Amino acid sequence: MKIALAQINPTIADFGGNLKKIKDFSSRAKAAKADLIIFPEQALSGYPALDLWEDPSFIRENERSIKKLAAENKDIGVIVGFSSRNKARFGKPIHNSAALLSRGKVAFLRHKTLLPTYDVFDEARYFEPAKSNLPFKFKGKKMGLSICEDAWFSEQNGTHKLYRTDPIGLQARRGADILINISASPFIRKKNTQRRKIMSAHARKNKLPFFYCNMVGGNDEIVFDGRSCVFDSRGRLIQEAKAFEEDLIIVDLERLPSPCAAQEISETDEIKSALITGIRDYLSKCKISKVFVGLSGGIDSALVCALAVEALGKERVTGVSMPSSYSSEGSIVDAKALAKNLDIRFFSIPISPLHQAYQKSLKDILNGNPEDAAEQNIQARIRGNILMALANREGGMVLTTGNKSELSVGYCTLYGDMAGGLAPLADVPKETVYELARLINKDREIIPQSSITKAPSAELKPNQKDEDDLPPYPTLDPILKAHIEKKWGIDEITKQGFPQSLVKDIMKRIDLAEYKRRQAPPSIKISPKAFGVGRRIPIARGSYLDDAP
Amino acid sequence: MKIALAQINPTIADFGGNLKKIKDFSSRAKAAKADLIIFPEQALSGYPALDLWEDPSFIRENERSIKKLAAENKDIGVIVGFSSRNKARFGKPIHNSAALLSRGKVAFLRHKTLLPTYDVFDEARYFEPAKSNLPFKFKGKKMGLSICEDAWFSEQNGTHKLYRTDPIGLQARRGADILINISASPFIRKKNTQRRKIMSAHARKNKLPFFYCNMVGGNDEIVFDGRSCVFDSRGRLIQEAKAFEEDLIIVDLERLPSPCAAQEISETDEIKSALITGIRDYLSKCKISKVFVGLSGGIDSALVCALAVEALGKERVTGVSMPSSYSSEGSIVDAKALAKNLDIRFFSIPISPLHQAYQKSLKDILNGNPEDAAEQNIQARIRGNILMALANREGGMVLTTGNKSELSVGYCTLYGDMAGGLAPLADVPKETVYELARLINKDREIIPQSSITKAPSAELKPNQKDEDDLPPYPTLDPILKAHIEKKWGIDEITKQGFPQSLVKDIMKRIDLAEYKRRQAPPSIKISPKAFGVGRRIPIARGSYLDDAP
Question: Which domains does chain B have, with CATH numbers?
């Protein structure tokens, strides 16, 4: 039996487009004499559809589409993820399901047992879990079919094991000949190593070949990295699909290939690919072709611009320099040099006349320090308004350029540098920004060296440096990571050698900036805990930091 | 036995302040010779604490605080909601719990059985449900203690009954003498009637007195309306606490009062109270004292300003008129008249000089129609920048003025009229805006009559009227309600007599505006489905509206 894994990039709610893609891949697999083709979790409608899963019309389209697909796909077995109705009277109205389509109809339905409900996942909000999930027979083989989280039964949640059961182990004990898992497993830096280990262990432990089909592509904040793979019954990797691209791989069950080496991709490389995929797919799935990036001459905006050019092509990217009287000559030169290196359209629009116009209009009211936060924010918001005007005029989107370190402590201006449709670096700490910039410059200088080496500055008042307002990034970043990603408290972080007052100050700044992040554009998740849908913090609140002993 | 219900307004994560409040109410109840005082669900930490429930330090503070409270409260039984650790090895690390504190210690712990995981609720994300929840004895009485959703076991989710079990009925069958439910049940217009019916039915069906203690106060988007109540064993209301205010009521179990009439509050009155509570608590819990409201002379901004004055007092509200060359004379006069009627600080800052400065700075780029969306948005964003500058200067907050009808179809400008910390009307349809304005003017003209009667206009180009760009509100609002709140599709709405092309157009506009709403400030929920945390829609997506037959 020849089995194909179709690692596709569906668009949420685009049933027409997704069906076409499924049929195209099925035709290619048929041409290669495959007996069965496997698509990812929720391939029919895209993942995560979120509250569209609660929309009766959306569920009807799911049903209509699966029937249509079944009727039209006669010469090959198809396993595909979609949402099916819960036929019981109780519980959530739908299941997160996989169908085996065979001979013009839905031959078997299997539902997901373990429903992730943490971080970016809300599956208990939408889906009723499977009661049982036994193997079924296709062409003489007993198939143990599971869905994504079913393979992660050993997942920990802090102090607790999340799940009591191992759905895949159960299928093996019930006589499965092969194991199949269809997934929509999001990218997180370095996660693939863990993923590969877990899937390999299922094969080895159950002494069965294991077929893992993952989704690929960006969906708002989430990027799926693909890397679907097949393991033999000793848990050895025997086939692996591409990272961050659609792919079709085919394995002959009777003549399993010999073990192969896994793709080696450095952490910085995979982050870069995730960001490029996230930008490209967000734009294409929003049906927007152009982006505008404000270029300050600094490293963040240079990196965003370079990533956008790789994602979209230089014709679709415009860099805009908006110097003020506080901008150094170097910043203006560096912005221009970057645009030249990338060969993109470039505008320079000085903001001093506009800043002066605001100062004049508000002179009776802003009668304080001309360099305080209110004045600094006016400048950032003038830039936001200019970029949005350009984007509105041409039907484009502004990419914001702030990084995770700044966003964590609120070192950014709402409606100013935070204005835009996508925030590519909002989950990228400053230290990683440097690594990515060096990677971009690996072969030739794209980001001007001086953008990388100079001290970071918002340039919103004379001689301003980030380090006047923030701890140095090599100190800030590890504290942010410990608190946000690892959920460590003051005591745990202080034990790592940081001064308690500094840790407390940073934790308070994180809390206070929540209102800004609530209005931030979507980011691209590369860490275990990104700001956005996976992190939900009340804004109006007290702080136990005041009470703690 | 005398039982007190303490309907309090805790602040999320303010353990010190909440403990103090709990002790104050307990002292008052003790002074009135109560044997037992009952506090709402999660009264110790506030609700909903969201991802703070995943923060180990936050859970430690919960434990520390409950022990402290138990140790200090010796002369009265206290039932109070908090988060306790799950002592099993599996599942979520905490329970949503209620403790009975008696004689200096935690005498009994009970956990919530039914965990709401829909709309604004994410309890399956955080809590492990109770395995069992039997009555316990206090001063000779067997108490059946349940938590919020446990009382809503008959809840429907579209086609399905959400829950299989009735935790309260089970407690009655296991010999409870009285039933107690502690809640944090959010306000939705007209929901209290349903809530009262459900609680009364528990008493009647189980032939037991029923004590229902609800939370009060605003927490970001959610307002709790209180109205805690007591029913006798025939299901008759015998005592009811205030709406939208803290309150303490005491009932003698041996001498139950005779039935009383429920408070009658009109739908418009309760919406008004919810909005005022939401504004007041958001400001106080964010520790911000002043608000700024842009006054266009229209009804929306007038209503927001009037509500803010009722919530905060006139000294804490500033109205800002920012006329442009497209503003009618009437609009300028109406804005000023409103400020005069409310006796608030008032600024007038014409935006024409700023608009001209942008036109000059962008003349090479904005070489198209001077009245298109890009130009209109520039004006709205100048206003946003001015308001934010004022708020930044004085440490205040901008209230946005857009209503739900506009936000639904994207008839609003990101970073322009959407700029602000709270959007009081973002869940209020235009038709309800009119009702609220008439209510505000019940005794004397506060909102100028011409603001109410004139045709709505954004005044961003000459002679612009909302109805040039949108269907009339009496047509738009019912379609929006059907699609957003009732989740009806094209077919169901068309059957109500609306043209199919119009329905489809509006549904598409709703979808396309999702990117704006993602960056909107929090609203105040008054409907079954508000934009914000309770409605989660992907931005980058296709549309089944294109495929549907």
Answer: 2-262 (3.60.110.10), 271-466+513-518 (3.40.50.620)
